[in-house]
Structures are given as C-alpha cells and as structure tokens.
Amino acid sequence: MNDKKDIWLNDLKRKREKGPTLQPESHAEFKDSTKSVHAGQYNDPNTNALGTPIYQCSTFYLNESSYKAIEEGRGRDEMIYSRYGNPSQWSVQEKLSSLENAESSIVFASGMAAISSTLLAILDKGSHVVSSRDIYGGTYNFLYEDLYRYGMSVTFTSPTDMGAIEAAIQDDTKVLYFEALTNPLLKITPLEDLVALGKKYNLRVIIDNTFLTPYNVKALDLGVDLVVNSATKYLNGHSDLIGGTVSGSRKLIDRIWPQMLKNGGSMDPHACFLLERSLKTFALRMRTHNENALQLANYLESHGKIKRVYYPGLASHGQHGLAKSQMKGRYSGMISFEIEGGNENAHCLLSHLKLPKEATSLGGVESLISLPYNTSQASLTKEQQKAIGINEGLIRLSVGIEDIEDLIADFEQAINNVFKKQTVC
Fold it and tell me: Which of 32, 77, 134, 208 is catalytic?
C-alpha cells in the first residue's frame, strides 16, 4: 500500500455506530427478561410519559442536521420520513438488537418483507443460494419462483447434512440460507458447522430463527451474519399483528435498509408500538412456551394412539444431543406428532380439542394447531411433502401459555373421542 493511500485511510474519521438509537443507555449487561422490559423504551421528556409513545406521523421537520445527513448519506440516522425511520421503529429495533446481541436491527411490515429485502440486498445478479427443502413455504416460493427473475439461482438440500450443503456450494454461491429449527418436523440446523462452512467459502450465513427466537438460541453469538424473524409469531406473541425483523452488524443492516425502502415494507408506527409492548413479556412467555411444550411432548409420546412425536427436548429426537448443546435446555414451544389413522383422524382430533385453536400461524399465547399438508406446506406437491417427511396424520402444535394440566386433559379427552367407535367427526 503506498504512502498516499495510507494517509487517506488514516484520515477517515467516520465510523458506524450501533443503532440508530433514541437513547445512549446500553442494556448489554442484563439478562433477557430485563432487556425485554427496559431496552429501547423511550420515556418522553416533554410529557414524562412512561413508555414509548406512538409517533403516528408520516414526516418530520427538516433542519440543518437532517439536511447534512441526507447530503452525507446518513439518512437512516435522522428522522426525515416515517418510511425511512420513526421513533416508534427505533424504539422496538433497539429492544430487538439488545435481545439478539446485535449492533442494529430493522423491523418490516411482514416476515416475508424481511426475508425478501434481506436476500435482495445481499445478493447480486448471478448469485447462487444454498437453502433447505424444509423451509417455510413462502420463503421456498420466493427462492424457487422469483430469484431467477433477478438472474439468481438456488439449490435446495438437507438442513442437517453438512456434506450435502457443502456439495451444493458453487463458484457463484453467495449465501447459505437456513432455518434454525425447521417447520414442521423440527429438524435442527447445526449453526456452528454452517458458520464454519460459510467462513471456509467466504459466504454469508443468514438464519431464520422464527421457531426458536433469540430466547432459545442467539444465532449471532454463534457467528451467523444475519438473523431474520417473523415478528408475527413469538416476538409479538398475541396473534394481533404482522411483522418481520432482521438483525446483525450495522454494516450489513445498512445495506438492507435501502432495499427495504425500495420494496416499501417498513412497519407502521402503531404496529411498532404493539410489538414493543408485547416484547416486554417476551422472556416470560417463552419460558412458559418451552416448559409447557416439553411436558406435553412427553405426554403425547407416552400415548398409545400417537405414532411419533417430533420435539428436540425428547431423547427420541434424532438430534437431541445437538439440541442440548445448541439450545442449552430451551427446546421451543413447537411440537409435531403423527396420530394413528392418518389425516382423517388428525382432522377428527382437531374437531374435538377445546383449547388449541385450529388456525394457521404460531407463537401466540393461545395454543394453535394445524395440519401442515394443507397449510404451511400446501404449496408443495404430495411427492415433495413425502420427500421431506410429511406423513399422513402429521399435526403441528404451537403450545400456548395455558395451564399445562388443562392442555394435557384436553388432549386426553380429544384422543379418546377420536378412537371411540361411535364418534362422528
């Protein structure tokens, strides 16, 4: 490097800060429940209101600071226009960054907005992605149906087979995109092994952590470059908003922000308020989801009419050892299981349950139950479903925060009713 270039580099004063943020306080030293309550909360200095107000505005007064930020390309660090940034967004983004141990985060109008904006920002024309056959149907459709329109390509493989993933890597591969815990069979992606592959081939590793959340696995701490979540699910937890998130280094999040602006998928202020409010009970809810799911999984596995239970916390799970090391005893609130009698009895069971609600989605305070073959994986052909292990009678259960004794009793009566000869479903 020549002397002139050395001088030029040494004269660069600007550096990326965490955030953007409304307040200088850091909560890095605290644990998750404390972060959930306090991180990102903005107490209005003019009214002394306790808690972040809803800034329901589309635009902000321009001043010397905002003009300078626009001129220098720092528009993300100033309040200019609500699609670019809003105090309600900044507040919830700071809380998310604290929970993810991230430098920066962005909230989106949906999980798919977060996924598509992130991938389009990181990839270039001609790029190749290695992903999983087990990913969420919406993500699969985007990768399979839309990437080629941008001159990009994708190879789908197993999320658990590092040899198969490595074999799928090409000269033009740029991203390894996987889910930390897959839907609906709860396969575990070995994150540290995946990160090692990423480093070996100089690839970005992007993880959808919706099923586990940063409470169960902090993917960024394991070396993942970017982590996305559907905030619709556990992060919000009340089945009353649609949203998505992405967290990572400030450098990478700054690349994604302009793509979000172009796609138009920013989260509105009222939804930001709901998400920030809901996150205050995030750790408390996740603790109960995890505990309930483990007890219910044990009950279902012991029942004679249940053929198989998929749950990482069970010794029967094929990756239970990895679950113990990677999740450290926090195994998620999701269970999948197969009932005798195939899809007919699966539908019958759902009709007899009183507490779990037959509905798509997951991660709410109420238990939600559905059949993957006609909901989350409905876009796959029967052959594709079978190839990834979606068998007859497979049921997916998002375990809520109800009293576990009530949930077990409800499943007991429902299963008994399914197998009564006189029962009509």
Answer: 208
Entry pTM: 0.93
Is 404 within 8 Å of 289 (Cβ atoms)? Answer: no
Catalytic: which of 74, 83, 280, 307? 83
Can you tell me the distance from the alpha carbon of 282 to that of 286, in angstroms, rounded to the nearest whole number? Answer: 6
Q: Is the peptide bond before 190 cis (omega within 30 degrees of 0)?
A: no
Active site residue 124: no
- To the query of whether residue 233 is one of the catalytic residues in this protein, the response is yes
Is residue 277 among the annotated active site residues? no
What is the pairing mode between strands 173-179 and 204-208?
A: parallel
Catalytic residue (choose from 42, 55, 136, 311): 136
Q: Domains for the chain: give ranges and CATH numbers.
A: 24-280 (3.40.640.10), 283-418 (3.90.1150.10)
Instruction: List the catalytic residue out of 233, 250, 285, 330.
Output: 233
Catalytic annotation on 171?
A: no
- Block means of pLDDT (10 residues each) for the chain, 425 residues, are 48 69 81 92 87 94 93 92 95 97 98 98 98 92 96 97 98 98 96 98 98 98 98 98 98 97 96 97 98 98 98 98 96 98 96 96 97 83 85 96 98 96 69
